[in-house]
Write a structure and sequence with these properties.
alpha/beta; five-stranded mixed β-sheet; three-stranded mixed β-sheet
């Protein structure tokens, strides 16, 4: 079998929902009763849920089961991430109390005015305010998961990042330069606070920024109290993607149950990751991944996903490029907004892209020597989310492995400190 004929790995499909996490106990009771009814009717899907969450209820000889409501309640609890039905009820009761307190404006004091909350975006700022947090909020959102992250002097590094963000996302360079200066300068004033809390989730966008911040913390001669909320799952949220999807009462729950003091080991790990990310080869990151990063468990998985943006051996595509082309191939013609939605909800194993970041990926595919995708031609300017996009014959050949995308690119691409160009050899991922 020739390389062009080698089959691609089986496509991974998901079915994510963006639930806010504020589960209602009465609704969960209703779900348990509905499950019991379905099981009594020998519904195959219901039996599959039972076998997965509570298999010892089944009679191994006959395949039948004497199912009670309590069994179904346990299934519902485990599907929500709890070990038992009483634990689920206690969680729901706490959320109900916090939600009532928020509605009445009577939340207990959580932080204070000398607290700084740092987040890689504005997605939880309003939720924190609603929940009753009163500290300052700082956005640090340089997207290190895209573009060059080279080992350069500070001033050169800032300018490289500023130019990339402006060029890639079509934003005014003066505006980006101002935003970057505010973001980085604030890091020099963390001493002004008694208490600094980092809010992060598990994807590569968040984890690479977290590594940068931890590296900065390592250089501080004295430190305020640093704490971390870093989660890859949240009870009651089966399809957890990010903190921005959560209701205000869930942010309080995270504050009360997932906030920890940052340790020296975590600072050291972040510093090591930040150095390895900026290296010209992937070996440093691969060594870190092999350690499974027990001090920050989501870090290893995020780094694995980051390195999947290296070109594939067969096609030269990053994983994001590959998934985007597969979606277009399966559903063309398809609007840009629907490609992005399908990517986030059905195909991407660890969602990390924003919409402008995804548009940058599509633009690169369209700007190859022989474009891999084409846009609908319109008589009036049409925003990219509304443009119909199709796969070209070249795109089809690349997707099949009959052409190498690296032979077609006209500009450099970066994966951290690793530079990918048409002229130079670069590391490749297996698939």
């Amino acid at each position: 079998m020739t390389s062009a004929q080698q089959p691609r790995p089986a496509r991974r499909h998901f079915s994510r929902t963006m639930f806010h996490g504020s589960i209602n106990f009465e609704q969960q009771k209703k779900r348990a009763k509905e499950l019991l009814k379905s099981l009594k009717q020998n519904d195959r899907t219901a039996r599959g849920r039972l076998e997965k969450q509570h298999p010892n209820t089944l009679d191994l000889d006959t395949g039948t089961a004497d199912i009670k409501l309590a069994d179904c309640q346990l299934v519902i609890a485990r599907e929500n991430g709890f070990a038992s039905w009483p634990q689920l009820k206690a969680h729901c009761d706490r959320l109900y109390l916090r939600k009532s307190q928020i509605a009445s404006g009577n939340t207990p004091q959580l932080d204070n005015e000398n607290t700084l909350h740092i987040r890689c975006g504005w997605d939880i700022k309003h939720g924190l305010e609603i929940a009753g947090f009163i500290g300052d909020f700082h956005e640090f959102s340089d997207p290190f998961c895209q573009g060059p992250v080279p080992e350069e002097s500070i001033n050169t590094f800032y300018e490289i990042r500023t130019k990339f963000i402006s060029d890639a996302y079509g934003l005014p360079i003066k505006e980006i330069r101002t935003k970057q200066k505010l973001a980085y300068d604030k890091l020099g004033h963390l001493y002004d606070y008694d208490h600094v809390v980092l809010w992060f989730e598990h994807d590569s966008y968040d984890q690479l920024i977290l590594a940068c911040l931890l590296s900065h913390i390592s250089e501080m001669l004295s430190r305020p109290a640093f704490e971390l909320i870093c989660v890859n799952e949240v009870p009651g949220v089966p399809d957890f993607v990010g903190l921005g999807q959560l209701a205000p009462e869930m942010l309080i729950w995270l504050w009360e149950n997932r906030r920890i003091a940052i340790t020296d080991a975590q600072v050291e790990l972040g510093t090591t990751v930040w150095k390895a990310l900026r290296a010209k080869t992937p070996e440093g990151l691969q060594d870190i991944i092999s350690s499974r990063t027990p001090d920050i468990p989501p870090m290893a998985v995020a780094l694995e996903r980051h390195l999947q943006e290296l070109p594939a051996k067969l096609t030269g595509l990053s994983l994001t490029q590959q998934l985007a082309l597969e979606i277009i191939n399966d559903h063309e013609p398809i609007k840009g907004v629907k490609i992005f939605a399908r990517l986030m909800r059905e195909r991407e194993p660890l969602p990390f892209l924003g919409d402008l970041m995804f548009w940058h990926v599509l633009s690169e595919l369209a700007q190859a020597k022989d474009p891999l995708i084409s846009y609908e031609k319109t008589t009036t300017p049409t925003p990219w989310p509304e443009r119909l996009i199709t796969l070209t014959s070249t795109g089809n050949k690349v997707l099949k492995g009959e052409l190498d995308y690296l032979d077609l690119i006209q500009s450099e691409r970066w994966v951290g400190g690793i530079k990918i160009t048409p002229q130079t050899a670069c590391p490749r991922r297996a698939s």
